[in-house]
Hints:
Chain A is α/β, with parallel strands linked by helices and about 375 residues long. In chain A, about 30% of the residues lie in helices and about 25% in strands. Classes of the chains: A alpha/beta (about 375), B mainly beta (about 100).
Amino acid sequence: MIKAADVVIIGGGIIGCSIAYNLAKKGVKNIAVIEKDYLASGATGRCGAGVRQQWGTEMNCRLAMESIKFYENANEELKYDGDIEFKQGGYLIVSSTDKEYEQFSKNVKLQKSLGIDVEQISPQEAKEIVPYLNADIITSATFCPKDGHLNPFLATDAYAKAARRLGANIYTYTKVIGIKTSDSKITGVITDKGEIATNIVVNAAGGFSKIIGDMVSIDLPVYSERHQILVTEPVEPTQKPMVMSFSLNIYCQQTPHGSFIMGRGDDTEPRDLRRTSSWQFLDEMSKTVTKLLPPLGNLRVIRQWGGLYNITPDKQPILGSVKELDGFYVAIGFSGHGFMLAPITGLLLAENILGEKTTIDISMLDKDRFNRGELVLEPSVV
Amino acid sequence: MRIQNHPILNFEKGEEIKFYFDGKQISAFKGETIAAALHAAGVKVLGKSLFKHRPRGFYCAIGNCSACSMVVNGEANVRTCVTMVQEGMIVETQKGKGEIL
């Protein structure tokens, strides 16, 4: 392990690897990424793998648009020896209540004003996109054909390999156990495999980001919550878009392999770090999916798993420097949509760390927006 | 796959019925699974593996391995080793991963 680094990134998910790649691309030589398990072992590898531009806040829309643009050419951009399996089958988001119908009208107006190719459509039109959709229980839908999904493991691998090629050091199965500071400045990172002297630490620890904050006595306004997903046996290609509903609490896509991946949240989850599976999820998930997409009820479930959403009070991430501690940067609190925002997050953090003007102004995503009361609540989260 | 004489157990053979395998009429006995009836009729290849298209036959016989998945009465991915054969059933070799619509 190297003894000193210009930047130490904590977390080997797609966010950490994207930050490492972007820093390395900008010429930073001594980068260390510290991952306690294997790459993408946390929320990245456990996520639903979708990427969408249909958000309810301008910031999330813009972050997502930039990220999708990157994913479209990521294989070439990252000179990947594989394929990240990016498929743009669209996102069909259905509303099931009048209130939601109105929210969608607002969302679509905002998304269109930003140049996103999206339409609000009738239940019948939604049925033309997914013929076996139960149109009787929906009031409308929004559809953006440029949304889609990709493979989180391969996407992380592509970033990690590109970062390594540019000289970044990635240490897996290495756990950060402390951060050294002196006079409100970072001086080093202590891991279970040795110490690295550094003045810059990036907290990209996803579900475990609060623990990293606690190491430097900074109370990060995030909490973690388990969300669960299941995967079915594979069948021939049947469903192109991700089908999603906030009010029915479901998202469901068919992977290129043929299996269906579906997930939902649970308001009653305790705020902790458990990633276990529950039978209640299986019960509720199967009821929800058979109601909205009846033929999927015939599929057998292969397995289910849990992962952590790292959630902020306004469901938007916290990005950039933290004023209490010189050299401490965060890219946390993605509230369940970090995977899809990773490309632009890596660029923004690299720019922020190097003191450049950021591609998108992220000053409103700082940690202190919650103290100032300047929350911009994202309404469209499962 | 039909035990004629067992030292302890006594097998009551059910009545003879007919079903169809890839368009061909095959006889079976009530109380047998589809895979057992096919095996008795000399059908050893129940499907092909997904990636290398190698033959797949009667393997676990308890509904776990999916080697015997076939299309039964239009429904894909039916585990024929744990599904009872019925009069007039239409059993087809499955191509690929199966259609759900």
